[in-house]
Amino acid sequence: MVYPQYFERTYVNPSGNIAASGYYKSYITQEIANKYPTWHAIRDNVDSVGQQFISAPAVTLHGFERKMDEDLNNKFISLANVDDVDVLYRMKIPSTISFLQNQYIECWTAPSGATPSGSPFPEPEGASTDTFNQIQVELVSDLEEFYYNTIPTRIKIFNEENFSESRIAGLGVEIPIKPSGISDPIQYYVDRAKKKHDLTWAHGDSPIAELFLVQDSDSLESYESYKAGASGYPRGFILYKDYLWWIGFIPPASYFLNLSNPRPKPGSEYLDQLASYDISSMSSAPSGIAVDEEGTIWITDESRTTLFGVTPMYDYYSIDKDNRYLFFKEDYSSPGVFVKTA
Asked: Distance (Å, rounded) from C-alpha 284 to C-alpha 268?
């Protein structure tokens, strides 16, 4: 098979991104509740009005704690976050565009592998026939969202190679044969005796299991369970930063790469599904998945003989009207970006 191969997003959550999807309950809620006497209902009842009141500021404290940890880690080379956006592509806004006459513009492009989407921009005279397949690049006005919270619009498989344990070790990742014992890097379970428990994730033993289990890393006691509620029965999965990446299987031969929010609102039966990508046309059936420290996704087939390298793609732009520049996450230098007033 010739690479790269591109796969479209078949679903996106109307909420838009991880920051807008759901409201979760932090373990800090119970830590604060444990300051109350042992006989108090706030301490013993996770559904009490008191814990509900505590929960909102606890989420804020949790975010503040994570930000402090990140800032501390970034002081050390071995702990620094290396998958932040470090390259943007810039384009000067054509002088024919006047923001005095129209405040809004549209950007259209036709990167290799793109499938037509939306209303096609008129093909410029003398343009390459490759520009016929075009997609509209989406504007993101908020800089924090542009850098950190956008959902991939497509995925690109850039490589296929023979699988080996030594290769996986060299990438610094693990792809277990059975997806269980996947450590949760963010959340903990705090009991009423003030003990903090590390958490791991697994899914049921049934080949058609659709439950994700949140378990104690030592006793394997299940504290929570969630239905996948999205594209397929779970195969391999991995927790990476704020996301749960997992491969779903729909009999007889459909496969999806899914992106979910592993921290749904309290009492949820399902995970918040953020996006799905149809990968059924891969050269072999996908199964295991891992994400390395640079954000590259690695997928194995069911027989563990082939390893695929996958890159999320982000077709978004931000605009600097004062200096008349557009900024993109992806390289559209060939065939280029077409700009017009909306």
From this structure: 34
